[in-house]
Amino acid sequence: MSIAGGFWRAIHRGMELGCEAIQIFTKNTNQWRAKPLERDEILKWNSARSESGIHPIVAHSSYLINIGTDDGSLWEKSIASLECELERCEVLAIPYFVLHPGSHRGRGAEYGLKRAAEALNRVHGEHSDWRVVICIEHMSGQGNVLCSSLEETARLLNLVEDKKRMGVCLDTCHLFEAGYDYRTPRRYLSFMRQLDETVGAHFVKCWHINDSKSALGSRVDRHQHIGQGEIGCKGIALVLNDPQWLDHPMLLETPKEKDPLLWDRKNLQVLRELRQA
User: Fold this and answer.
1) Strands 211-212 and 223-224
2) Considering only CA atoms, which of 73, 48, 62, 21 is closest in space to residue 205?
């Protein structure tokens, strides 16, 4: 949901669509820092959240952050920005923060994963009282981006010391584009076994539900409206109707087109029909 005009307005927009959960950015995604939240902003947020009953609310990191980089200056700026956003989550009582793990920029996955874990361990160590859970997003595999395989995601979790403050966000589009085919009941069960043997299903805290414009294993990140892409409604329905994800927030990141609320409403309607199937 857009935070235009004040981030509490994202809750109002979610209410208009009948959302059960929403995802927001806590600040401008094109800026490294943000001014501290004002008391009036926090009060408006708390009031809107109480009125809405929407739960949980998930935050997504800005796209500037790269904690897997070998660039020292970028790495420090990324950590500072990560701290800024996590602090805002604490103030707003947002339980989950979805984080892109970043790019190793050609240094190799193991280097990037160790670099990312070093950043996360530092943030955890300096802010031991924070409660927000950082959810590493599984990526599609474009370029040198980290965590486009379950094994890499599991490796990063293993390198982080405070695992109670870590989780995973699975994206249906990213998984498919990374080569994981779960479009039939048999393949879905096989994928779930693989997930549990590597990452561990208990680490999954939320899902991004998107169809894919790109083919299986394309490693190109292209989201599509539900049922209009290569995954299709049957594949999405297997995720939606799996009892183990019943209480997990499932969040749309489908294309907004010219009328964002119109397309969100259309995609939500499709998902609700699939969930009732």
Assistant:
1) antiparallel
2) 21
Q: Provide the H-helix boundaries in 127-171.
A: 150-159
Average pLDDT, stretch 260-275?
A: 94
pLDDT at 258: 84
Name the nearest CA neighbour of 172 among 181, 163, 164: 181
* Mean pLDDT, range 49-55, rounded to an integer: 95
Cα of first residue to Cα of last residue in the chain, in angstroms, is 26
Average pLDDT over residues 239-244: 97
Domain ranges of the chain: 60-276
Q: What phi, psi does 62 have (nearest 5°)?
A: -70, 160
Mean pLDDT of the chain: 96
pTM: 0.96
Distance of alpha carbon 89 from the chain centroid:
14
Long-range contacts of 244-248 (CB under 8 A, 24+ apart): 244/201, 245/204, 245/207, 248/204, 248/205, 248/206, 248/207
122, burial (CB in 10 Å: exposed 0-12, middle 13-18, buried 19+): middle
Rounded to 5°, angle at Cα 29 from 37 and 145: 130
Q: Compute the average pLDDT of residues 247-264.
A: 92
User: What's the topology of domain 60-276?
Assistant: TIM Barrel (3.20.20)
